[in-house]
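Batch job 17 of 40 flagged for manual review because the log was empty.
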Amino acid sequence: MKFELSELALEDIDNIWTYTVLNWSISHAEKYYKEIFDTIELICSNPKIGIFLNEVKASHRKRIVGLHMIVYKVQNEIVFVDRVLHQRLDVESQLKG
């Protein structure tokens, strides 16, 4: 399967990159960025790998990567990445809408 990133997911990834560079290093940010996209590719090859979030948002799943979770759903043979959120965040409030 292929994947598509929402605008919010792109913002999330940009924010993760910036935070990691400012607090760690560019090399650490590059490594984490790669981990995120490797996990998205893993999801594409096995979309059922994530844990359902039906109680929060119907048809969505999450997959943990580092300190973040990739929130996604499968629609029309595409893995749609809705958000990439820190595990400490209140997922329900971030996914409203």
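Reviewer: the log was empty due to a logging misconfiguration, but the result itself is present. The helical segments are 7-23, 26-45, 91-94. Unflagging and moving on to job 18.
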